[in-house]
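A reminder before we start the practical. When you read a complex entry, don't treat the lines as separate problems. The point of joint prediction is that each chain is placed relative to the others, so the output describes one connected object in space. Small molecules and nucleic acid strands, if listed, are placed in the same frame. In the example below there are two entries. Take a minute to note the order of the lines before looking further.
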Amino acid sequence: MQVNKANIIEVCPRDGFQNINEFIPTETKLKVIDGLVNSGFQKIQVTSFVHPKAVPQMKDAKEIAQTVIEKYPNVDFTALVPNLFGAKAAYESGIKEISYVISASEAHNKENVRRTIEESFEGLAEIRNRFKDLTLKLDIATAFGCPFLGEVPVSQVLKMIGTALKIGVDYIFLADTIGVANPKQVGETLEAVKDKYPDRDFGLHLHDTRGMGLANVLVAIERGISTFESAAGGLGGCPFAPGAAGNIASEDLVNMLERMDISTGIDLNKLIDTTDFIKEKIKADLTGHLANICRK
Amino acid sequence: MQVNKANIIEVCPRDGFQNINEFIPTETKLKVIDGLVNSGFQKIQVTSFVHPKAVPQMKDAKEIAQTVIEKYPNVDFTALVPNLFGAKAAYESGIKEISYVISASEAHNKENVRRTIEESFEGLAEIRNRFKDLTLKLDIATAFGCPFLGEVPVSQVLKMIGTALKIGVDYIFLADTIGVANPKQVGETLEAVKDKYPDRDFGLHLHDTRGMGLANVLVAIERGISTFESAAGGLGGCPFAPGAAGNIASEDLVNMLERMDISTGIDLNKLIDTTDFIKEKIKADLTGHLANICRK
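Here is the predicted structure of the whole assembly.
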């Protein structure tokens, strides 16, 4: 059931930039988003509506969102929100789709959002009830492993999907937050998920920390999953695993898929130019292969 | 037809070190080989019997080979040879298995060994006739793409396999010399090869230049191929693509396979210690993920 088309959602402006301590000027962020739009991305996670004291890098969330929504009416711009307050701010800035994160691991969820999983689901339900016309996406973090608890049972992921669907989320991503997922595990998890929820589309948010990122993409594709989040340059990481890079690099992902005759709609040359711009302007190690080793 | 056991041949002491300009003291090389043996590798390509003027780094080939063969009688130590002269030197040093490289691309073969493909096969036949009791392995370089000609047709690979088997080589590796192979292509090539030569075992020598290394391992495993060459730390590259890293890192490969319940016989902790030793002693960028990003 291999796919011949993939949807890639670019998350560098949120997930990538979020981990960078030095504030990136809003103008630079907007130029990166310009580059991503010009590369062909139809959906970009541009910011996070969190408290500026928690993540000062995202203090320009409103300005970013409003600017790009006005400038590019045909592109979907999404944002991460941690709670109802963030959802309200995103909504008021014109964002039509939000991502909300709950970890499959209780320990990681507490570290990440200072709530139990149950409390997180209550927060999700609150957002759903309040903002009926927001597209609501749930990211199940640490779905393939947790830095504190090790492997996460598939049953836990299935249970969370069930709860989320009952609440009324629009779609769900499974995230390998710390880059430990292996292809066998990804295959088995996706089979269990598709088996239980055959009519639902799922997406994957993978990291390439241990070099298994694109191998995991491959097993997903072989099982008909065609929606992935990735970040230009491979920026992004997990705050609980210092030095742990990073999201799958969008250009590595596009390169592999296009070479496999799976259409992404992305112009690889323009994307690499954008990655070069990020490299030039932002003080961070890029972990992507094309960004570091070769151009194409 | 997924495998549950893989054979990993470590090539760092030859393929990895060969590209390093500054001479690595023989003692350091021997310590690296000690570490690799202690990690559990049963077969290690330890050197190359080339003219010391062509590759000064390999001028201690005889000493390396003789020392490790005497020290570890239960491990297979192999060497690369470019010609009959090298085969003779390897044989006299006690080496029982040699690798010989011919590129699938005429242009790359000329750059690499200054011969036509036909002349290279003549050289291979010469070695075969002269050293009947040497195990003879052919590496088909640029089997998935060439820096000069682009994609290499599968028919060319099949034709070369046919010629090699007629000459009497013992086994054959397909090498993605410049790290351009994509999983679809690897899958199709391996299917064609297994289809035409169902009773033969083949191995893969993959690079991780564009992040597709382990994804390519995965498609091979799915097709019953279980023999891979890799290099500790991801050392090695292609001299015709400057900055182009590198072999698949052995520790990345072992980590993925073991996580997939595919037994490698390698102790990952000891291998990572060896990689750390290489990192400490040898001035070269390691491109492996575990070597750079996280320990496990």
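Discuss with your neighbour: Residues 7-292 of chain A form a domain with the TIM Barrel fold (CATH 3.20.20.70). What might explain this?
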